[in-house]
Design brief:
Radius of gyration: 23 Å
Helix content: 40-55%
Strand content: 15-25%
Bound molecules: NADP nicotinamide-adenine-dinucleotide phosphate, magnesium ion
Largest sheet: 10 strands, mixed
Strand order of the largest sheet: 4-2-5-16-15-6-7-14-12-13
Number of helices: 14
Order of helices and strands: EEHEEHHEHHEEEEEEHEHHEHEHEEHHHH
Length: 409
């Protein structure tokens, strides 16, 4: 049988450690066995980033801009330990950070749901996607311990004109002060990316802030969001996507009794906190995907977890591993589905659906990696190795597609 043809090239970014091992198996057995695709390959493994002085990361991000869709393996963000371990020239920045800044994108995290893992919140039946604004607020704040009595003010010195001074507090004793900021451009990009993601996922969009208290700072976010929503009103209506602004405390209360199927846009700090709450509420890091969406509608898919370092060291010792490849597989299916949607090739979209169905059927039949053993009910008798789990997915996929599975050897 002939392979399914993907029209436009897909940008592939390889990575590090255990996820790199898994990546090669996914690519061979699940993707290239069935798909005829022009993969624009960038090796973001840490030694190759080092050899290219990290230019390869920027080239990969530029390629996503050119072709529209990318899929990325988890990568090491080097620290002092890693510099020694991999004999690197320096502590190169986080590849995700670099790609995010080239694409000016926002990261959305989405849980993968299966019937035999019950979310901690019983009303959650559909995924809750968290969109976290990744610039500014307390993450770029200047804070200061006030040692004793004195006045603290904010001073704005405009490029032209007179400085404006605003009093913060007249301290009678010691205390603390923080000055934080955001920019209209960044807030607008965030709003645009949330709208692009809501349209792509066909999910209602919520945005929560505290404009009743923060009548200028938070209100600015609310107003910019509203302007961007107004600009895309027709697209949102056509896709059946509704927008709702809520106070952040109301959003938290509502989400706990909602069935899900919501894209929840959060300011930076709220997104930091709420993404961890939602992730653990749905189960495991191995079941969480992540997509970077640029305001221009470029997409980069990856697993939300890292390179699973501990498992890699076991693998290097020749020991069997039981690493969950699900989020990495869903990175591929997500990227291929998006490619198929953009290219107008329903057979590619159907392949992505079949791949995801094969994964979900394995888990729902009790074939799981070790991280899911305590989460699935009923508890399976044993867990699968990384390779056995991937073989089971490959066999299921081949059945769905009516082809023979590619054997392990
Ligand atoms: P990690 O890779 O997320 O793994 C932390 C622990 O979580 C693992 O040791 C494992 O627990 C569990 N885990 C995560 N993913 C799993 C999976 N797919 N299957 C089974 N268990 C899983 O974080 P790390 O090991 O602390 O960090 C390793 C490297 O990843 C770091 O160098 C960091 O820079 C990088 N990182 C990259 C990204 C990215 O590229 N997006 C994101 C985060 C971190 P047990 O050991 O208990 O089994
Ligand atoms: Mg956090």
């Amino acid at each position: 049988m002939s392979k399914i043809r993907v029209k436009t090239p897909l940008v592939e970014m390889d990575g590090d450690e255990m996820t790199r091992i898994i990546w090669a198996i996914i690519k061979e057995k699940l993707i290239l066995a069935h798909i005829d695709i022009d993969l624009r390959y960038f090796d973001l493994g840490v030694t190759h980033r080092d050899a290219t002085d990290d230019k390869v990361t920027v080239e990969a991000a530029e390629a996503i801009k050119e072709f529209g869709v990318g899929v990325k393996c988890a990568t090491i963000t080097p620290d002092q330990d890693r510099i020694q371990e991999y004999k690197l020239k320096k502590a190169w920045p986080s590849p995700n950070g670099t790609i995010r800044s080239v694409l000016d994108g926002t990261v959305f995290r989405k849980p993968i749901m299966v019937k035999n893992i019950t979310p901690a919140v019983s009303s959650w039946k559909l995924p809750i996607v968290i969109g976290r604004h990744a610039y500014g607020d307390i993450y770029k704040a200047v804070d200061f311990v006030v040692p004793g009595p004195g006045r603290v003010e904010i001073v704005y010195t405009p490029a032209q004109g007179e400085p404006v001074k605003l009093p913060i507090q007249n301290f009678k004793g010691g205390g603390v002060v923080m000055g934080m900021h955001n920019t209209d451009a960044s807030i607008r990009s965030f709003a645009k990316a949330c709208i692009a993601c809501a349209l792509s996922e066909k999910m209602d969009l919520w945005f929560g802030a505290k404009d009743t208290i923060s009548k200028r700072y938070h209100a600015r976010f609310k107003d910019i969001f509203f302007e961007e929503i107004e600009g895309r009103k027709a697209d949102l209506a056509a896709a059946g996507v509704a927008y709702r602004y809520l106070l952040i405390d109301d959003a938290v209360a509502q989400i706990m009794k909602h069935r899900g199927g919501i894209l929840w846009a959060c300011m930076n700090y709220d997104g930091d906190v709420m993404s961890d709450m939602v992730a653990s509420g749905f189960g495991s890091l191995g079941m969480m995907t992540s997509v970077l969406v640029s305001p221009k509608g470029h997409f980069e898919y990856e697993a939300a977890h890292g390179t699973v370092r501990r498992h890699y060291y076991e693998h290097l010792k020749g020991n069997p591993t039981s690493t969950n490849p699900v989020a990495s597989i869903f990175a591929w299916s997500g990227a291929l589905r998006k490619r198929g949607e953009l290219d107008g090739t329903p057979d590619v979209v159907a392949f992505a659906d079949a791949l995801e169905r094969s994964v979900i059927e394995c888990i729902e039949s009790g074939l799981v990696t070790k991280d899911l053993m305590n989460l699935v009910t009923p508890r399976p008798a044993t867990h699968q190795t990384t390779e056995c789990f991937l073989d089971a997915v490959a066999a299921g996929l081949a059945t769905h597609l009516g082809r023979k599975a590619v054997s392990a050897d």
